[in-house]
């Protein structure tokens, strides 16, 4: 699977945004060309992979967004579009005409939602219009960037617009070299408590949250882990952090957004997706030898050794080393 | 002696004068496809129907009843992708190749889209100078592309007919190789190429000469026309890409030698394709 | 195999810039039929004295087709009459500029057992052609007509390209042109050899020849399928990589007893160049038999050359096995004697050491021991 950035421009300015650094150093008018999309599709296809995520910036800003989706569907790909849900009337109308009847098995939107009470009115209205049409294809996403957060609005969105009854939970991480909002290490237990408190409510509405990357397992007590297990199930309990593989419109690749300037390569340096993934996996593994995880105890943690947990977000771990004296492998310094 | 395939307009009177021939019938109206098929197959056999259309490919009114008819369609451009996408299931069932004009700025991109979706396609060289770099990129995609895709002409012809020690004349793709095709006017006059036909440059004005064309001195002269590049000491004669280009861009080459690199790269691609096939055959032996 | 470079005439219809015959000789003589008869009688006698031997008669010139069709027909009649029992062991070959060839000649050549013709080619203007100006346009037009006739009759053909100063400007352009011209290969790129004054300013040094080849070699090496039978590359690689002996007369070290030249007046010499440059004389076939010509004592000096050179000029040279000191005539040009190596050895050595070995990773090693 690969995350393909169709554009570098966004329509929002989320406080936690982990694409901030990447986009600030990119040309805003950079958009992916047809030839490059075809190249990436071919690369995935020939590597036996048929799932592509489209993101940005805001992917629906790309003038050929709908054509791209139709194209990928014709190529028998499963597509996930990471969108804010905020788009022009024209785009929404066109998208509705061509995409609203696509099977949910083939097309999925992940809409990262912010608390409407803290968002501009026009944004919220736009999102609602999107959800009216594409709610049945949409999974809500929510990024936790402070220990005290509200999730009730997500339940409202799901119920009112028929969104998929799962929530992609992300944990905002510090981006090395950038000031963004994120949950600090000492605030994590409070955040964990808050999250656990929501689980019964979500369960009552038959809404399943799932962890995105970077949650360390030891964030939760044994009792909390038990609640998580009951509500989310073993499949949703992921405490991993690995390369996500992002591909920019300039055909550069990197491990994930927070590490967008860390060992950036050209996609043309690789003959297959497997080779690409292997490169970053090897890199991560090498770094993890030097810097095990968020906490010192990660180095000797049996769950890390048993691969049940990777020790939290690698970007977060590396940002802690950012200002230290350079005594480790050069690779670990950003 | 090899019998030529006759390229002619859709003219019933002319076609009825031909017997047991293979025909490429040219027209510009897809509504006449069935009439062309009926008339063309009456006493002869249709090799292909060549439709020169003004509308974009996406606007062509493809029909179920076109299945099985060998069609080559020339369009100025692809048109709206959504239009093409809607018709894809039917298009893929047709025996069709679409040519897009090199004069349109998005042709190289559009051909890649069509090819990647499994639609055999090709480039129709137009009046404007060729964008050699874009053409080279397209060729690289066509030959080296890893994922399965439909063929793009003239690259497919070149790599599949290429012999490292021979000349490969890809004008056959456009039914314009006088060793294989003869062009007939509605009046039954015979020319060695489309250009000759348009210029009224006939090798014979008698349709009955079709079977003895190869005996005519003008035919032998055309066969050996490649030699003029050496007689004139043309820059094409010393071009590494000569064996595949054969001086098609001799005029432009004086001022824009982009063809040189393209055809040299195409020969490398053809060698690559040949060696790859040889290796695969070895595996299966 | 005995070889006779046979020049019943040295008349030519061209004025090629690098030709020694043109530069040097009175060209009006044509061998009489009486003398032609004598030549064939001698050939018969020679072959009868060596029951296992075969003989190749290379018709050369000048331009041998200036002899006219009847001459060749007469030669066949003479052969049939005087070589009744030995004609099976006579092989005819011909070098021609192709400008005079027609279907009648081709038919006679077929009767003579000739199915391929050696020729030469130069793409540049004023290098070949009739007249002081060398009218290349007319010449090449005729040349191509001749070539088309060969192809029509399924005749094989190969050519020599003579590398001159003119060639040095763009070696790769020359190479591509030659290989585009004859895609199936079968040509040699030989340096121009000048005996005496370089009147036309076309001479090249061994180093220049080596660099000319070196500019082309990487392209050839990468694409051998595309450029088959290009010499000297093919034969050098065959010798070095494949350890198969593929040496021309100049490099074989064995030319002493195999070659002869007979000129229009019966004058005998060692080979074409020896005859053209009048370096060695074996007398005249009117006075000496072919057996005696092949047995001339001067050949011993040539035969001794291997022994002498391997102990002197070529001592310890690792390339000896593919060079043998080069052509003795080149040695004579510089030293007035045969017991020296050719100056063109430096060209071969330079090319092998500077280009062939580094590019290919091969190493020339004497596998003869």
Note down, in words, how this protein is organized.
The complex is a heterotrimer of chains A (334), B (285) and C (369). By secondary structure, chain A is of the alpha/beta class. Helix content of chain A is 36%, strand content 13%. Chain A has helices spanning 20-24, 34-46, 65-74, 89-99, 121-134, 152-161, 188-204, 222-232, 273-290, 302-305, 314-321, and strands at 2-5, 51-55, 78-83, 107-112, 138-144, 166-171, 208-211, 246-247, 252-254, 265-266. Chain A has a 10-stranded mixed sheet with strand order 7-6-5-4-3-2-1-8-9-10, covered by helices on one side. In chain A, strand 3 (78-83), helix 4 and strand 4 form a beta-alpha-beta unit. In chain A, helix 7 runs parallel beside helix 8 (222-232). The radius of gyration of chain A is 20 Å and the shape is globular. With 285 residues, chain B is α/β, with parallel strands linked by helices. Chain B folds into 2 domains: 5-161, no CATH class; 224-285. In chain B, helix 4 (107-116) packs parallel to helix 5 (132-144). The longest helix of chain B is centred in the C-terminal third of the chain and has 27 residues, at 258-284. Chain C has helices at residues 20-24, 33-49, 69-82, 103-111, 136-152, 171-181, 206-222, 233-240, 249-252, 272-277, 290-294, 298-311, 328-335, 345-360; strands spanning 2-6, 55-59, 90-94, 116-120, 156-163, 187-191, 230-231, 259-262, 268-269. Helix content of chain C is 41%, strand content 11%. The model of chain C has no long low-confidence stretch (mean pLDDT 91). In chain C, the strands form 2 sheets. A 5-stranded mixed sheet of chain C has the order 3-2-1-8-9. Chain C has a 4-stranded parallel sheet with strand order 4-5-6-7. Chain C is an alpha/beta fold. Chains in contact: A-B, B-C. Chain B binds chain C through residues 164-167, 220, 224, 227, 230-231, 233, 237-240, 242-243, 267, 271, and chain C through 123-125, 137, 140-141, 144, 148, 170, 173-174, 176-177, 180-181, 183-185, 219, 223, 225-226, 228.
Essential attributes:
heterotrimer, A: 334 residues, alpha/beta, TIM Barrel, 10-stranded mixed beta sheet, 10 strands, 13% strand, B: 285 residues, 9-stranded mixed beta sheet
